[in-house]
Amino acid sequence: MSFLFSRNAVLTIGKKSGKAKRFSGLRINFNIEKNDEKTPNQAEINIYNLSSASRNFLDNNSDFCILEVGYRNILGTLFIGNDLKLEHSKQGLDIITKIKAGDSQKEIKAKHAELSYKKGTNLLSIVDNLISSLGVATANDKYKAKLKDIKITSSYADSGNAKDILTRLMEKKGFKVNIQDGELFIESEINDGKTKNKTILTYETGLIAINKKKDGLEVLSFIQPSIKPNNYIELITDEYKNSVYKIKQVFYAGDTHEGKWEAKIIV
Which of 208, 211, 212, 199 is nearest to 253 (CA)? Predict the structure, then answer.
């Protein structure tokens, strides 16, 4: 498990126009919730003792943030967010900059759709038009095979938030719609058995504990960026031999300098 030592985090904040700053070597702590539901993922990130110039930069250039975490110099993206809210405060000798952010929350709020389609329109074209209006990249296209031959049997009209409309349409066909790190996922609610994005957890590779719940398992592990909703974990222990589970929800709590560095995984 040596690769899980020497925790590290790097935070990038900037404007879409191109100005951005990457902060490393400073104390960073965070609490992040990710889920496979329609509600946006949320993060609260604290970074310690930025210079006055850096704080001024953030006050004027904070369209988005990217949090990368890992061990030593091996990092992966844990969270991408926008709609940032910043607050600087002094606690003892430390100046702490608190950042609250949502995953593509700004884009989701802003996209309005007015739909009107006649009977016989292909459902896939309606869905693809909604996705296009959201302006968010799609992470997969599993939904296309199921929708490509479906035609609506009556005229269809709707108005409102584009993601809400897309979610309603896809739920009727057995799919969940969610956004992870700026990418749109449309995933079947039925486990299709395909486990390409899988993290193997043993007590040697970061697994801490497994707790049985009424509706599934709660797995505690050290943080690994590959552990996120829509991906899979494979548990290998004396009790759980080659058991593969799809991740529904993850709570990350970490601090580069002390305390927790854990992911609570709901499967």
Answer: 208
Answer whether 106's CB lies under 8 Å from 82's CB.
yes
Mean pLDDT value across the chain: 89
Sheet containing strand 175-180, edge to edge, reads: 137-138, 183-188, 175-180
The CATH number of 2-103, from 3.30.160, 2.30.29, 2.60.120, 2.30.110, is 2.30.110
Q: Which residues contact 138 (CB under 8 A, 6 or more apart)?
A: 131, 183, 184, 185, 186
What are the structural domain ranges in the chain?
2-103, 108-188, 198-266
Give the pLDDT mean for 186-203: 74
Give the number of other Cβ atoms within 10 Å of residue 160's Cβ. Answer: 12
Residue 88 contacts residue 95 (beta carbons within 8 Å)? yes
Average pLDDT over residues 119-148: 85
Longest CA–CA span in the chain (Å) reads 67
Distance CA 108, CA 111 (A): 6
Average pLDDT over residues 98-124: 84
